[in-house]
Specification:
12 helices, twelve-stranded parallel beta sheet
Length: 312
């Protein structure tokens, strides 16, 4: 199995020889990709092991996109499209191959046109499993398109508090197993976003990993993360949600009867006495749980020490 950066000479060599290659990762970083698009198409036809296609600084013409689409259609392996350079987006967003299973545009600032193009991709790609994206307040149509995609399993998204309300209202609740959410503007989820977050968690019956770090979650939002033993959730990360107060106590009490295996509580506010008591009960329960904390979580460390009957 080979991971490779692709040069023109290598493409011509592989394409002309028609040999079967064992490439699993292809990264294109030549801005003049158009010159050897046909060679790349031939290479895609020759390999059946390709898993990741990464475009970095590649401006694609309509002709080269056609060659790329043809090559992807001949390659039966699922392909991940990773765009890590803003100059790639305008052209690469025209790639709508049916076998794209991952799209990563987290590092790109998307224009309104890009968001529209991405909405089209999400609608057409029936094999899309992983989406990593950063969105501003121009994303209503994208979330409506995403609501019709039933194949998505993992969503990593940075967005605004305003957009989070529509996102939680429209996200499929029967397919997403991993949600990694970040609110990158200072307002956080707010009251409306927290309510929509809670209702989404209630609806979702397949979510196993939830990361809601630095989201400005409120006590109301935490009501959605009250688990029973039947809950599928196994990994929970709640770093930097400093507005939560009583929610921590309710959460620790609920976790005593859950099957959570990992809980990340770094960078949160100090806990009160009632909360620390609930945490000690959790640590003394029959559950095996990994708690991630740091020096700022002195209350957590003290509670762990007390539960283990050691001197702190």
């Amino acid at each position: 199995m080979v991971e490779s950066f692709i040069s023109k000479d290598l493409l011509m060599s592989v394409g002309n020889s028609k040999i079967e290659t064992s490439l699993i990762v292809v990264e294109l970083f030549d801005e003049k990709f158009t010159r050897f698009a046909k060679d790349f198409r031939d290479m895609l036809e020759s390999t059946q092991t390709l898993q990741t296609l990464k475009l970095d600084s590649c401006e694609l013409s309509d002709t080269s996109i056609k060659q790329l689409e043809d090559g992807l259609s001949l390659n039966e392996t699922d392909v991940a499209l990773k765009l890590e350079n803003k100059y790639t987006v305008n052209s690469a967003m025209k790639v709508t191959s049916q076998n794209l299973h991952e799209i990563n545009v987290m590092q790109c600032i998307l224009s309104d046109e890009n968001v529209s193009q991405l909405s089209n991709i999400v609608t057409k790609c029936k094999q899309l499993k992983v989406l990593k994206i950063r969105l501003e307040d121009n994303s209503e149509n994208f979330f409506r398109a995403l609501s019709n995609n039933k194949s998505l399993r993992e969503l990593s998204i940075q967005t605004t508090g305003k957009m989070s309300v529509l996102m939680f209202q429209t996200l499929p609740s029967t397919s997403i197993t991993t949600l990694d959410l970040a609110i990158y503007k200072t307002e956080g989820l707010g009251n409306d976003g927290s309510l929509a977050f809670k209702e989404f968690i209630y609806r979702n019956k397949v979510l196993t990993v939830l990361k809601a770090n630095w989201c400005g979650l409120t006590d109301e939002a935490f009501k959605g993360i009250i688990f029973t033993r039947e809950s599928p959730l196994r990994e929970l990360s709640l770093m930097g949600n400093t507005e939560v107060d009583k929610g921590w106590t309710d959460l620790f009490n609920a976790l005593c009867s859950s099957r959570i295996t990992t809980l990340d509580v770094r960078a949160n506010r100090p806990y009160g006495e009632e909360c620390c008591t609930a945490l000690k009960c959790l640590l003394n329960s029959k559950n095996t749980i990994k708690i991630i904390a740091n020096g700022r979580n002195e209350d957590v460390v003290c509670s762990i020490a007390a539960a283990l009957a050691v001197t702190y």
